[in-house]
Structure formats: structure tokens, C-alpha cells
Queue: 3 jobs
Job 1
Amino acid sequence: MDSRKEQILKAIIKEYIFGAEPVSSKTILNRYGLNVSSATIRNEMAALESLGYIKQPHISSGRIPASSGYRYYVDFLMDNDNIVDKFNVLDINTSNIKNIHNYLKEVAILLAGLSNYTVIITEEKKGEDKIHHLKLVGLLEDKALLVLVLSSQKVKDYVLSFLEKISEDELKKLTEILNYYLIDKNMDGITQELKQEIINIFPSNPLLVEEIFKIVLTALYEERNVDIIVEGLKNIFKLPEFNEVKKIENFINTLEDQSQLSKIFDNILGQEKGKIDIKIGDEIGLEELSDFSVIATNCSFCDGIQGKIGIIGPTRMFYEKNITLLESLFKQKEE
Amino acid sequence: MDSRKEQILKAIIKEYIFGAEPVSSKTILNRYGLNVSSATIRNEMAALESLGYIKQPHISSGRIPASSGYRYYVDFLMDNDNIVDKFNVLDINTSNIKNIHNYLKEVAILLAGLSNYTVIITEEKKGEDKIHHLKLVGLLEDKALLVLVLSSQKVKDYVLSFLEKISEDELKKLTEILNYYLIDKNMDGITQELKQEIINIFPSNPLLVEEIFKIVLTALYEERNVDIIVEGLKNIFKLPEFNEVKKIENFINTLEDQSQLSKIFDNILGQEKGKIDIKIGDEIGLEELSDFSVIATNCSFCDGIQGKIGIIGPTRMFYEKNITLLESLFKQKEE
DNA sequence: ATTAGCACTTCGCACCTCCGAGTGCTAATA
DNA sequence: TATTAGCACTCGGAGGTGCGAAGTGCTAAT
């Protein structure tokens, strides 16, 4: 990727984000001052296509960005221009705020209005559940069952697969270690430090410990008292590329399905607050949302209520603007 | 409306509810055993059209029901067949019920699934606001200002118009009476009986008292802590007549606008619980929803939480089934 | 390495035609 | 007088055609 290719890729993405139409070599020539001819740009575009960054909807049409093109853009090319009007918590309509739920709804409505995309906020009241105890049971030589008993008497089990074989003895030892450290821990207690400590004590299979921690965290997470707020569904109708009922249906279906929705936030589960996560297209992990991108972050509200805020828009979303939006929201909350 | 016209109207509505396509004279002839020819049916259809019960999308097409046709059907022709699987509260997925809000969400999801339409539930926590005092101020000879001060220090004012003139003295007298009876009353205190009592004491203008009561009730109502749950948006995509993005957009836009939504329940505000209200097309009072009907009822949940449940579907909705659905929900709640 | 020029491809719009479905009307019938 | 058979008429929608605009890839020249 020489500088000229990057310039052209950036031009294509900016144009496409703005106009939602395939970008031609001529457009780039006219609007971006590269001192080369359209034929040269075409050659570079062919190169960018074979690199996988852009694609053609059909032969003899202009180019549109591919997912990896957006990823390259977000990682390397994006300007951090702060043109965006700073998000202002004061703009919230305070007249119907009577509790945290109402407040979050107003935040969602405001963010949806500012971003022009759809906003998802999860409201998570601290779950009371803790690990009561857990057990690892060997199944086959490369599989084991993780049985998890929670304080609420719920029992959950998960099948673990190992890359390498593990002996019964080792499983027993790991069970003991895990119980020693995890019993009576709630979600807040399952920290990265704790994980590291256990890996130090049980160094023979760090990947397995990683996996178990992820499962335990998810299990406790599921027992939290979660409400999901979705606002700005209507904004999808402003996007010219979603001009077919089928596409809208797909979007609404997915956003009405709570179990699917929470997957959007998989990446940031347990991550530090204020860190912005960007998932592009397939990175979301939901086939139905492969035309969308998500910008999300963890957030803590008052009274021990935590949550996640996500902005979901088309892959050709205004990344800079919406990252800035979420960042400035976070900064104001911290103050 | 002789019996044969009613039979034909009923046939047209049943067919259209089922198939969403204009109904022809031949269809009626084939599927409903009227011992007349299609020509006769056509004559009757022309008559029904001039009565306003049905209409033609275009000349030389079959007939579709008009709003007043549905109204006639609901009022006079509908079979109260209880084919519907009885609504069963036990079908609710209890695993994520941790509070009343979650419970209502599950009820909404279940109802949306059973009805195949969109379900709206309002969750109204008792507002603490009471009438602090009120005042009537004469403006012009047929207008006055009603100033309402609530315990929360909120001040609201409304312009009243009278059919007949009212003197300053009478306004003063009414203000005194209203203050005597309404001060320190919360929403529950504003009863029909109280209204009747005041009308008895101040018999010169019952309509005015009615209007003031409505305003007072609405004012306190607005101060309640309301949350609105909407589930089953996706069901709109199952309706063949909503096959255009514009129509879907219109629907979603309206249902995402909380201030519009509450109008759906205007009719049943303060009505007895369990009574089913049916609004067809324009009767909803929202231009955007003129292609929809609403079946709604008041409901009380636990802990003094009240609410309203509404099923919103196309005007060609399965009225019988959904009325039964709501009724059986109510019966089970009462038990 | 770059570029001018050109042949080629595809999309999408506008237009046309044709067929099926359904009506309203007229004249005949019970 | 109420009903009906028959027929001309209308409309929507599916399917086919033609054409221009937009844009590319390739070749040959610089």
C-alpha cells in the first residue's frame, strides 16, 4: 500500500460514505486533486480490488469499499476531525425524567437524533448472583464439561474442547484452583488480574483458563437484570441503500430479538469503560447485520447501574463523527 | 340494510381480512352459498358502495371494505367465535422475569406472537402529583383560562371555550367549588362520582365541568411515570399490503414517537378495566395510522402499577380473535 | 510509468403490448 | 319487479424491447 493507493482508497471510502453510490475514477479525479489521469486511477483501483479493499457491484461499474477497506480506513486513514457538535447532555429533554430508565431512553433518543443512526443502550442492574461452585468433568480425551452452580441455584453446563489432551488429574487440580478463587465471586469479582493469577498457578494450559473465564463471566452476565433500549429505528429509512422492504425487515427483525442484540456487545464485555469498540460488517458476528457497523462502549450510570451504548449504522457510516459522539458522551459522564 | 346485503358485506370483509385482495362478485358466489347469480351480487355491491361500506380501488376491480364497513362488521356482524387458543399466561418465558417491567415485556412478546400484530403496553407507575389548586380566569365572553398548579409546583394552563357565555361570578363560584373538591386529589381521586357531584352542585354548565375534569385528569396523567413497551414491529412485514418502504416507514415513525403513541389510548383513559375498546382507521385520531385498527384495554398489574394494552394491526385485522385474546388475558389477570 | 482513446458491458428507465380479472349495463326472463 | 345471461369496457401487471448514460479494461502511444 503506497501512499497513492491509500489516497485513492480514502477518496473512495469518503465518497461512498457520503453518497452511497459506486465511485468512479472520474469522480476521484474531479474531486480529489491527484495529479494523474483517470486511467492511472483505474489501474490503481484494479490493484486495490485485488488487495480486497474495494469491490465492483458489477463489471463496468464504479467501486464500493469492501469490509476490509473500511477496516483499513478506520485503523489507518481516518481523520480525527472534531467537526461534530459536541454532544451535550444538557440537550436532554428533562421534563419526563423520573428515573434512570427514562433518562437512558432520553439519552438514546438524543444520540439517535445526533448520529442519525439507531442507538442501542443496555441497562444492567447489578445481578446478585455469584458462583456457588464449579466442576470440570472429563468427557473424551479432548473434551470436558464445565458445570457451573450459581448462588441462585441455577445450574449451567458448557462443553469445553482442548487442543491438547488433558489428564483427569490436571482437570481435578484446575477445578480445585478455580473453586478456591471463584467461589462467592460475583461479576465484578471476575477480574483480569484474577485470571492472570490463576494462569500463573496453572501455567500448563492458559487458553483453557481464558475460555473458562469467558464462560463464567458470560454465565453471570446472563443472570443480570438487563433491559435493552432501542431508539432511532426510523433512521434506517434515511439511508438510500435500504430502499427494499426485505432489507428493512431483516434489520427490524434482528433488533427486536433481544438474544441476538446482546451479541453486538460481545466484544466489549468486561472491557474498560470509555474504550470505543468498532465492529465492521461481519465482525459483528451476526449474518443479518453484515451490512452494518457498530460503534460501542461500556458506560456506568448512577446507582451501580452499568450498561453499554452502541450506535449501529450502515458499514458506510460516518465513523469519525460517531466515535467522537460516544467519546464526548463518556467524557461528560465522567465529569 | 336487508339481510342479503349484510351477508354480502360480511362475506367481503371476511374474504378481505383473510386475503388482503379486492373481493369479486364471483368469489362470493363460489365461497358463500347465496342462491343468486353474480350479477345480483354485483348489484348489491353497487348498493353497498353507495352506502359507504365498501369501495373500489379502481374501476373494474373488486371491492374492499371501507372503514365504516369494518365498523358495521364489528358492531353487528362479527361472530364471537372462540376458535382462538386461549391466551395462557403460563406460556410466558419466566426465565428472565426479574421485575414487573420484564414481565410486561414478556407479555408483549407473547401477545405479539399470538396476535401476529404489534403490541403496545404502557406501564404507569403511580404519579405522586396532586392538585395544589386551580383557577378559572375569564378571557373573552366565551373563553376562559384554566390554570392548574400541581403539588410538584408545575403550572399548567389551558384555554376553555364555552358554547354559551358565562359570567365572572359564575366562574368564581365554579373555581371555589372545584378547589373545595379537587385540592390534594391525585389521579385516583378524580372519579366519575366526584364529577357527578360537582355537576349536581353546579348544574348550569355540565359540559364545562366535563371538560375541566378531562383536562385535570390528563394533566395528572401526564405527570405519571410512564414507560411504553412496543413489541412485534416485525409482524408488519407479514402483511402483504405493507409491501412498500414508505408505508413501513410511516408505521415505524409513528410507533417510535412516544407522544403520538399515547394518543392510541385516549379513548380508554379512565375507563373501567377489562372493557375492550376498538378503534378503526381514522377513529384512532392519527392520520399516520389511518390504515390501522387498535384493540385496547385498561389493565392493572401488581404493586399499584397500571397500564394499557393495545394490539395494533391493519384495518383488516382478525377482530374476533384479538378481542378474545385481550379478554382472556384480562380474565386470567383477575383470577 | 503514464495516458488518450475506444470498444464493450451493464443498469435502469421508458415504452409497448397483451392477457386476465372484474365490472356495469342492457336486454331478456321468471 | 327482481333476477340473470351476455357482452363491451377498463385497469393493473407481467413480460419484452430499445436505448442512453456511466464506467470500465485494454491497447497503443508517449
Job 2
Amino acid sequence: MPKVGMEPVRRKALVDAAMRVIGDHGSLTVTMSEIAKEAGVSPALAHHYFGSKEQLLIETVRVHLQRLRDSVVTALRAARTPREKLSAVIRVSFQADQFAPETIAAWLAFYAEAQRSEETRRFLVIYARRLHSNLVANLKALCPVGDAERIAEGAAAMIDGLYIRQSLRSAPISTEASIALTEDYLTAHLNALEG
Amino acid sequence: MPKVGMEPVRRKALVDAAMRVIGDHGSLTVTMSEIAKEAGVSPALAHHYFGSKEQLLIETVRVHLQRLRDSVVTALRAARTPREKLSAVIRVSFQADQFAPETIAAWLAFYAEAQRSEETRRFLVIYARRLHSNLVANLKALCPVGDAERIAEGAAAMIDGLYIRQSLRSAPISTEASIALTEDYLTAHLNALEG
DNA sequence: TATTATTGATTGACTGATCAATCAATAAAA
DNA sequence: TTTTATTGATTGATCAGTCAATCAATAATA
């Protein structure tokens, strides 16, 4: 065989290239040629390994969400109290690599794609549920379940909203300011319940 | 068939058709043929009146935002106190037609398109600024300017976030629940400042 | 060691489909 | 007749996907 065992190398290179191209482009309307060129291989090879453009894009979304998930798991392990864990979830959502313009553009593109691709939608629903349940699980330790659900709903919406607003680059909000806004939301509501 | 004075009729029909097709499709990746067919005319006529697909789509975004703007203006006029005006802004953001699945899909598509089309981006930035300034203007009557800016930022993010989460149709939130969440956000923060 | 068979990796060239855009032609009104 | 409305037919570009052919590394064989 030639350089045997190229498959995993190429698959990773193509997925990474797809992320970059999608980010640049700000949309999933990218060509296999662009992705392949970015990865330094021929378009034919991309088809050889992924079968179709859709499969390559789906794999890209999957890997992207997997990475985010890993970050969350690590951050949660490092935090001790429920309140710290809540902060950890927020911090990860806005950490540097998630907040890079290309990453934000890619997220937006994934959301749009979810309207058409059932599989992409499934991945994003899983992400949304995970975010929600991570929040609820820790809020429950601090307030009644009903309130926990409601506050989690609001916090998740705020996180996603801060994201989408970043994508317009009109009034850029810093990572710290985004974290502070979401933290304030939690604090204000938890205090309101105690008071 | 040529009845004279068809231009405004056709333009409106095509823009409305574009909205429907985009909503169905959940993306701006729609063809002139689809739009024209939906409007009951030939693709050639669409080109005749709009010159290009991009211009038709831009006009569609423009009309869409214009309608939202009109709703806001009307609602603001009907409200008296600053607090009522804040509620009016929130209510309009989630009113029935804005919350229809196709409308949400279209919004999402516009956000994604803004990554590529400078003109679409300009329109959305104007929308974002208007929402922000409507909120700030009325918050200023209830709290210090600095806090008003911060609270407006959070409320706007929450509104957009509730939108984007609706697009996934995973845990659908009712109009009332969305309004309640945003209202709670305002109330909690305003109370926190007074207390 | 030299030869050969085998096979994964890789690509250039091609195909078929799709689509935006153009244009020439026609029909109705002014 | 001149202008406006309208369309069918066509063009040119872009792309996803296919395929036959080539390359290079290994392993079996002589």
C-alpha cells in the first residue's frame, strides 16, 4: 500500500478544513473543491472518504459539538459547588475558541442548516438539551425545581442570544461582558428567590 | 394579458412568495424558479422586475424588517408609561406572526445570509440597534443610564436567543412563556437596583 | 537480492444536473 | 405605433459525484 493508514489523517484534515472554510464563508454553502483545496487534497479524495458532501458536513458538525462537549465535561469536573459549576458552564460557552468570529459564523450556519438537515437538527437539539440539563442539575441545588427550569431556560436563551448578536459584529461584546451578563442573570434571579 | 401598472403588484407578489418559500425551505438557498412559481409568474419576470436574485432577496429582508418596525411603532404609541412601553416592545417581538415557524426560519436564514451579504448585514444591524435603543430609552426612565445599557443588552440577547431556540423545535416555548421569561428578566434586574 | 503481485491512496478528466441570467418574440394596452 | 407585460427557449457557469488510470509501499516469491 502507499502511505498506509492515511484515512484517519485525511478525515481529520478534511473536517478541520471544512470548519475553516465554513467559518470564512459564514455559511454551509461551500464547495467540496474549496474544502479539499484547503485540506490540500483533490475533491475526488474527499468524496472517496466521505461519500457525499452532506456526510462531510454532518461529520463536521458532529466533531464540533463533540469538542464543545469535552470542554464542558472538563470544566465541570474542575468545579466543586453547584454555583461554581454553573459558572463553569457559562465560561466554557464563551471561552476564546468558541467566541472566535469564524466559530460564531459556523454555529450560525449550523443552526440554519438544521432547518434542512434532520441529522444536523438532531445534533443541535442534543446540544441544547445538554446545556439545559447541565444548568438545571446545578440550579436544583440552589432553588426549587420549577424555578430551576425557568431560570435555565432563560440562561440558555441568553447564551445563544449573545452568540447570534456577536455574529452581526455591530456592537461587539467582549467575552468578559458576555459572561458578566449571564452571571448577573443567574445572580439576580437566585437572589430574588431568596429575598 | 398585459394590464398596465402591474409592476407594484408583481413586486409585492414576488416578495411575499419569497418569504413563504424561504420560510418553507428554512434557508435563503432557494431558486428564482421556486419563488416565481409560488408567485404564479415566470422566472424571467422576476428577473425583469428585480434584476437579480440578490436584489429580490435583499428587498425581501427589507420589507420584512419594515413590517416589524411598523408593528413596534404602533405598539409603542399605544403604551403610556416607560414600563408599559418596555412590555410593548417585548410583546411585539413575540407576537403571533413573528413566532410562526416559517418566520423564525426566515429570520435565521437572514442572520446566516448577513455573513455574506453586506446589505443584509446592514439591515439586521439597524434592527438590532433599534431594538436596543427602544429598550434603553425606556429603561433610562427607570434606572441609571449605565444599568439601562446593560439590562437592554441582556434583554435583547434573551429575545434573540428565545428565537433561535424556537428554530430547533426541540422544547417549544409558548409565546406567553417567552414573554414571561423576558419580563421576569427586566423585573428582576429593576427590582435588584431599587432594593 | 531481485522480481512481481497486490492494494490503498490519489488524481485528472468527465458527466449530468441545476440555476441565474439573457433574449427574442408575442400580446395587450395607450 | 410605441410602450409595457410576459414568457419559452437558450446560454454559460458552477458543482457534486463518478471513474479509469497511476502511484507507491509492502509482502510474497524466486
Job 3
Amino acid sequence: MRLHHLHEWPMTVDEAEAVQERLRGLVKVGGTIPRPRTVAGLDVAYEEDSGRLAAAISVLDAETLDQVDESILTGSTDFPYVTGLFAFRELPSLIRALQELRTRPDLLVVDGHGLAHPRRFGLACHVGVLTDLPCIGVAKTSLGRYEPPGPARGDWTPLRIGEDVVGRALRTQDEVKPVFVSVGHKLDLEVAARLTLWLSPRYRLPETTRHADHLARAALAG
DNA sequence: GCGACAG
DNA sequence: ATCTTGTCGC
């Protein structure tokens, strides 16, 4: 898969924030996906010591949610974990995994935020701009403020940072903690939320994320 | 100013 | 992210 703007790579925290400010203008907000045939989940697993990591991508049939492709690799990280600069920690390995994918998915689902980010350019936006593919951010915790949504699957409330509505707190199953959905690239928030619900028929997290998580953990072990 | 803070 | 006991439920 062909990727764009790979020359935009920082060495320091200041440079990293500058890259985000520069690339944020390339995010396309809005739109729908006519008929997604395949959906890819991206995730990275870490080993507490030695900075070893495994990146995994699982591509599922959007209709049956059966896996049709995968890409797994192990590596290491040098960029420290800094809230807001999360992308620069996971992106190098995710990029390699994307390039080794046999197929080009119709949609990407990232384990983290898109627009629900301090500079409105979270990992899901970054991956979306690099690939120019529609991309959704689905995170397990929030960086913004929200009121608890209703108790039923499908209930949601707006997620805000400052005055901006940057995403949704979405209940994907009855009586479970909500997930935090935001636009990454090339779709609108309503579509992102609808797709997230579709991809989460049984558990709190989307099947794409769960599959990728399993693959990444297995790769670290074996 | 202080605390909180995706994974 | 990862470390973990017991507990509840299919």
C-alpha cells in the first residue's frame, strides 16, 4: 500500500507537535462509505521491559466479520509515551504492517482517538492521512468531557474538548462502559458511530480491534 | 497555577 | 500498555 507524507517525521516533542499542526489541515471530515467490503483493525502490544512490541492488522469481511487478511510484525520503539503524541510511538511499526498487507481495506479502525485529540490530530487522523483511507478512532478512555450515555446499546452523548464536539461516548453493549468514537478521516461522526456499532455485535470493543489485539499479543509470546 | 492525560 | 485474585455467567 502506498503511503503519503512519510517525510514528515520528528525527532523531538516540539517537532512532533509541529508535524501534527501541519498535517491536521489534510484531514477530510465528512462523507460516508457506500459499501465497505473489508475493514481493518490496527493494534500494538508491548512488553514491559526492553521496549519490544508487536504490531498487528486484521482485515475482516465487513459483512460476516470473518478474517480475510492479516499482517503481523515485531519491532521496538524509541519514542516515549506522551499523551497527545501517541502516534509517534506506534506509527513506525503500524506503517510497516500496512505496507505488508496484501489487500487495501475499505475502512480502518484504530485503537485510539481521531479528532478527539488536543490538536484534533490523533492517531486515527494520522493513519487516515498517510493511507488516504476512511478511518475511525475507537478509544477505551477519553481525553475530553462527556455526560454518561443511557444504559442501552446504541445510546450516546457528545464528547467535548473545550467548546468543540470532537466525538461521541457510545454504549456498544447494554450496561457496559462506553467507548469513545471520533472521526479519523474521510467520514462523518454519525457514520463512524454507526459503523462502530455494526463492528461490535457482541463485545464492548469492535471485532477489528479484538482480532488485532489477539494477533499482536500472540506475536509477542511466540 | 494545578491536575488530568489515547496506549 | 502491562501486572493480577476472585467472581460471575454462558
